[in-house]
Amino acid sequence: MQKISRTIRTAILLAFIIFVFGALIYSRIMAYSLAPTMKTSDFHGLPTWYIPIAYLIDYFSHGWICLLFAFVVAGLIYEMIPKDIITRYMSGSKSIGYILAIIIAPFLTVCSCTMVPLFAGVLYSGAGIGPAITFLLMAPSSNILAILLTGELLYWELAWVRILVSIVVALIAGVIISRTPFGRAVEQEHQTNRVNMETDMKLVQPPLDERLWNALKFGGYLAKQILPYFILGLIAVAYIEAYMPEDIVGTYLTGIQGILIASVLGGPLYTPTLVEIVIGRGLWNLGMSKGALLSWLMGQPYDVANALAVSRIARWKVVLTYMVIAWAGSVIFGILYGTFAGSL
Amino acid sequence: MKEVNVEVIGSDPPCPRCRKTRENVEKAASKHGVKVNITHLNAASRGVVEKYGVLVTPALAVNGVVKTMGRIPSEEEVERILAETSK
Fold it and tell me: How far is the C-alpha of A73 from the C-alpha of A12, rounded, in Å?
């Protein structure tokens, strides 16, 4: 009896997941836009209070498939990824540490409260400060949620560039910091003598229906955490698009100067995950260059809240160094991308 | 019945997901009539990483053995784990 009800539950959950994937694929085949379609001119003549409502309706009537898909996929991947591989291989060698940091960061850090413990954990696990920093910089700018939404709301070329640039910047920052005297000092402080690692971990796995349900629940939890900010961001974007004169964006957010401004605004101005994407879209619609758009998106890793949390574990010098490297990276790659994409 | 030592390993201060894990342990224990001794461990501290090597929180260790990591075990699952351990 219990077996039958488990099978039925598994089937229902799988059907739902297949439906979500199907909906996204269907929207792709039909070339149906998942991003809002309103233009600046559509806002003219609307009463002030109605602007965000019109924008939200426009957004959610197109974007729900994309959001649903993003949260379901994030939940599934987080639940299904075998987490003990990290523990097992992180302490291997330096290069394995770097590779692992790059591979796991996008999948395990969709929830901000796992981020700092993970940073400390990587540090203590013996992988050293380099991979820990790489992990830290890689996580916010290229987690799967951010990438999926960058691709869907902006365009996929930008999403790939974002991943690539994140990897390069995170690696450079990790390697540089691991060679500085203060980086080494932090590493030394966190040396541990791990002896009985393997013996104390015997992970258990629940049956498939519970795992699928857990995955959806986690996706729902993420949605609950992120959507309120996301909606606030959309409201802000509605007003930006409605009232910001296009020539201001066109004048200040293009060229090298535009990249510098975007990179400075993108960081310290603490934008919660995913909000940078909607605001970026608003500014891009108004004429921000592609180069500045990339710099804007790359601002995430050096935002202030993140830095404060990390400075509790590492030293200020480490935090400042990686912030400077991440900022320089966002400027340099913004210029490069702008030049190559022909939109500086 | 023997007392079971349960350690919830998470961030410090406990994040919502760590609190939920602890809640599920408490509920499962009272339902099952198992006496549990729950402690919260800070995942970002030397001793804990040294002992358990837990990198993804929240994690659950029962009598010194890590059973789940990086997810909230449901009440039923904690019940199963407790039943297994207190056998």
Answer: 17
Residues of A in contact with B50 (CB under 8 A): 124, 192-194
Does this model's pTM top 0.80?
A: yes
Q: What is the pLDDT along chain B (87 residues), one digit of tens a residue?
A: 578 889 898 877 777 888 888 999 988 888 888 888 888 888 777 777 777 777 777 888 888 888 888 888 888 888 888 888 766
Closest residue in chain A to residue B13, using alpha carbons only:
A113
Q: Which amino acid is at B84?
A: E
Rounded distance between C-alpha atoms, residue A78 and residue A110, angstroms: 8
pLDDT confidence tier of residue A171, bands split at 50, 70 and 90:
very high
* 8 Å CB contact of A108 and B56: yes
Contacts of residue A192 in chain B, CB cutoff 8 Å? Answer: 46, 49-50
**Contact by Cβ (8 Å): A334, A294:** yes
Q: Which domains does chain B have, with CATH numbers?
A: 4-85 (3.40.30.10)
Pairing of strands B4-10, B36-42: parallel
